Amino acid sequence: MSIKQRVILLGIIIGVPGLLLVFDYLNSKDLLILEMLIVFLVIVLPIAYSFIFVDKLNEKYGRFSQVRFGYTYQRSLNFVSFIYPGIVCVILFLANFFNKLLLGSLLSLAFVIPFISACFRTGVFNDSSCYLGGEVVFGYHPICHTFSILVGLLGFYNVYNLFNVNFNGAALLFIVTVLFQVIFIIPNRINGIVSIEIRKKEGFILYNALTGAVYLLISFLFMGSAMFPPIHLNLTPEGIIRKTIVWGIGIIFAILIIRQAMNMGKRKNK
Questions:
Q1: What's the gap between Cα 10 and its chain centre?
Q2: How far is CA 94 from CA 24, 63, 138, 227, in A?
């Protein structure tokens, strides 16, 4: 499809629901409709941009990898960078709807550092990192950004719980969380000061596992037993939505990890 055809197609797909929301807001002046319109635009416009200029993006970042099945590291990371703003906007919208704006603001911060890295660090997380001399290795995998997000979500949620109980502890945990988020996305820097080779699969797993374990230990020192509250069913609309989002994201990430591992295994067997 040409760029013109893509624009027309997206204009039909996006324009109709967008105009309906605009007309609905103009008639009702309901701020909730306006918020939904903003969320809708923040979600679809970056994805639309990626769809319209997919050829240029593939030319810039490469499309299919030469060392494994699937997309190149840098193209995968570039695509994810278009999704982050929409996720943040949805979190803030739901937080405002359920009157949990402070919690939503903290959780949305979990995506800031990975988003900046996804935009500006494709020179690190790319297929070039998969070559170690004459050997093809795992490289600096973009999944590091997922680990950074998970640490951010856990850490900032605990910051929220500590905020009114121990403000100084909440502030320290906030700083520690940001620090560990950064550590996850700078494996190239860490690789120069540790004895293991992070670009190899074994070193990559060990590095991320140890980093995550150390962070959980530090978080437990701040939170104690409150870090792992008893499991109970919450069948309220808020509880169902929260669990759907958390478990949905977790399942998606797990599928991506398993798929990537299978692809790497197939490539190795060849």
A1: 25
A2: 20, 35, 38, 23
Q: Name the burial class of residue 199, with classes exposed (0-12), middle (13-18) and buried (19+) by CB atoms within 10 angstroms of its CB.
A: buried
pTM: 0.74
Name the one residue in this structure whose structure tokens are 């979990």.
Answer: 110
How far apart, in whole angstroms, are the C-alpha atoms of residue 108 and residue 189?
Answer: 26
Give dist(CA 108, CA 90) in Å, integer. Answer: 9
Domain boundaries, the chain: 1-52, 67-269
- Predicted confidence (pLDDT) per residue in 147-165, tens digit: 999 999 999 999 998 888 8
Alpha helices in the chain (DSSP H): 3-28, 31-52, 54-61, 73-81, 84-97, 101-109, 112-120, 144-163, 167-184, 187-191, 201-223, 237-269
